[in-house]
Amino acid sequence: MIERLAIVGVGLIGGSLARALRAAGAVGEIIGCGRSVENLELAVDLGVIDGCTRDPAVAVEDADLVFIAVPLGVMRGIFERIQGRLRDDAVITDGGSVKGSVIRDAAAAFGAVPSRLVPGHPIAGTEHSGVGASFPELYHNRQVILTPLPHTDADAVAKVRAMWQAAGAQVTDMDVAHHDALLAASSHLPHMLAYGLVDLLARQQDNDEIFRYAAGGFRDFTRIASSNPVMWRDICIANAEALSAMLASFGEEIADLAKTIRRRDGDDLLAIFTRAKAARDAYVDGVAASGAAGVRGESS
Amino acid sequence: MIERLAIVGVGLIGGSLARALRAAGAVGEIIGCGRSVENLELAVDLGVIDGCTRDPAVAVEDADLVFIAVPLGVMRGIFERIQGRLRDDAVITDGGSVKGSVIRDAAAAFGAVPSRLVPGHPIAGTEHSGVGASFPELYHNRQVILTPLPHTDADAVAKVRAMWQAAGAQVTDMDVAHHDALLAASSHLPHMLAYGLVDLLARQQDNDEIFRYAAGGFRDFTRIASSNPVMWRDICIANAEALSAMLASFGEEIADLAKTIRRRDGDDLLAIFTRAKAARDAYVDGVAASGAAGVRGESS
Fold first, then answer.
1. What fold characterizes domain A2-174?
2. Which of B64, B72, B76, B78 is nearest to B30 (CA)?
3. Which chain A residue lies closest to B272 (C-alpha atoms)?
4. pLDDT given at position A283
């Protein structure tokens, strides 16, 4: 049970966690913090949070659990604001899509990474933003990865794990660098391809026509290009090394594919497409079997 | 009104057209032709077709309209089989995703492109195949592009246009090369990116883990990688020139993006993602406004 939860960043991610914990009866009071008064007032009106403030230092006062769900680029600033204002036993966690940068930011802001900071990443989201897009089922059967350091408090990890489980998620621990490489492949690369494709097509002379004659598959394929640009700018910068490496690998894949097409090598093309279809069908079957329907949008 | 429709290839595309025309009362008898007896018998059982044969030459006898919906790689063989077996006034059309290759195949098989051949392309589909996946609403509010040649019979074009309109589609005429370049951008390139991504990830050492921690966005993004590999092998070969050019452009886009990420240029990244999001959101709004919900899968 969480007595007093401070959520810094009451958007899709923070708002959905609040709604889920409330629905599960797993939280007492929830204080929300954000820059937009309008969004905070909406969150109060919707019953997502009990009270609000624009000052992170005020939000975390007396909180036993602090969840930070802001774009990675402002993470360090938030850490600096709450530093010295936390309860001694307060546990801090976050929802950032890159974990190495969060740990570097914490080390810089706090002097060292606090033993009660549990870096975390809920693998869930949609292409929509703001508390108005939040809903309590967002984390049902979704994966949450925690990346505690060797010195991280075991009690703090247990508390964060219990929070996500109460929200309906499955929780796994993972090494920081491994998380960042894994997500570069499964999430950050696909987002770059979707953004890159739409940007390329939008810059074509006959872009109106291209979009007009795009079919249903295009809508699904490009859904993630409707994601929050600020959030993705920050993810790219925070995970620049791992993501650059994946983009380079993908560049080689595409160059090879172009060569195979140019030499009209039907056997090779059929082998590639058959292999990819089998992998994708197995992935979908796996998702269905695990009960994580994944009907809503964005991975992050 | 179509008296006797011969559908060569009773799969998702051919079967859905049959169902739509039947529902609209726009057709008398429908004869289906295909290689799989099992699929043909299913089509008869489902009431999609009235009769069936495995021989295209038999299927087209007495037909006033012939619709060929087979992978592009077997198009020429079908033309060769029906050549000399058609009614004098029979109109032929097809559903191939590339039009230049269909015209080349027709010229080779018939000696010259028949004046009553109207090359066509319904921009609709899902990632599923076979008559069992067909449904009468597939073409509702979807675009169909016809690419008649200068010598194509106006009556033949009118008959094919009326057929697609009866199925609920919007019909546009277009130049052959323009069609093939447009579809290389809006459909063939996205399919290559989806296949390429899934293939790349499936070949990674930790591919199980990558797929396990992929979120809902990944499912949508890769849906088109579950499409029919034979159909896509043939599309790649048939549209090799235009598709290679698009792949080269995309390779440059991705190389530029990787450079921007490596130098951590937040302003540039934000500009790219904001531009792409605006284009994609406008596309979705446009689709919604036109009534083409595009809720089902594959563009082709």
1. Rossmann fold (3.40.50)
2. B64
3. A199
4. 87
Which residues 197-256 of chain A have a CB within 8 Å of chain B? 197-202, 204, 206-207, 209-227, 229-230, 232-234, 236-237, 240, 243-244, 247-251, 253-255
Q: What is the topology classification, in CATH, of domain B179-290?
A: 6-phosphogluconate dehydrogenase C-terminal fold (1.10.3660)
Kindly report, as residue ranges, where domains of CATH 3.40.50.720 are found in chain A: 2-174
CB contact under 8 Å between A202 and B279, yes or no, is: yes
Contact map slice: B 32-61 vs A, CB within 8 A: none
- Give pLDDT, residue B219: 86
Span(s) in chain B for CATH 1.10.3660.10: 179-290
Separation between Cα atoms, residue B179 and residue B183, nearest integer Å: 6
A228/A246 Cα distance (integer angstroms)? 21
What one-character-per-residue DSSP string does B135-167 give? -TTTTTT-EEEE---TTS-HHHHHHHHHHHHHT
Nearest to A170 by CA among A134, A137, A139: A139
Identify the residue among B146, B189, B197 best suited for mutation to test binding to A, counting A beta carbons within 10 A and taking the highest: B197
> Which residues in chain A are classed under CATH 1.10.3660.10?
179-262
Q: Tell me the three state secondary structure of residue B58.
A: helix
The stretch A131-148 carries a mean pLDDT of 96
Q: What is the pLDDT of residues B172-225, one digit of tens each?
A: 999 999 999 999 999 999 999 999 999 999 999 888 999 988 876 788 889 999
d(CA A113, CA B150) in angstroms, rounded, equals 73
At residue A218, what are phi and psi to the nearest 5 degrees? -65, -40
Alpha-carbon gap, residue B66 to B162, rounded angstroms:
14
Sign of the dihedral through C-alpha A199, A200, A205, A208: negative
Q: What is the mean pLDDT of residues A174-203?
A: 96
**B265, two tokens:** 């240029």
pLDDT tens per residue across span A148-172: 999 999 999 999 999 999 999 999 9
Check A266 against B73: CB less than 8 A apart.
yes
Whose tokens are 């770059």? That residue is A192
Q: Note the CATH architecture for domain A179-262.
A: Orthogonal Bundle (1.10)
**Dist. CA A239–CA A180, nearest whole Å:** 7
Any idea which residue has 């002097």 for tokens?
A: A111
Q: What average pLDDT is seen over chain A?
A: 94
Per-residue CA distances from B146 to A160, B154, B193, B271 (Å) = 59, 12, 27, 37
User: What average pLDDT score do residues A255-275 get?
Assistant: 97
pTM score of the predicted model: 0.89
User: What value of ipTM does the predicted structure carry?
Assistant: 0.89
Q: Which residue has the tokens 């602090």?
A: A66
CB A294 within 8 A of CB A287: yes
Q: Is B130 exposed, middle or buried (0-12, 13-18, 19+ CB in 10 A)?
A: middle
H or E element, residue A93: strand A91-94
Q: Are A19 and A136 in contact (CB under 8 A)?
A: yes
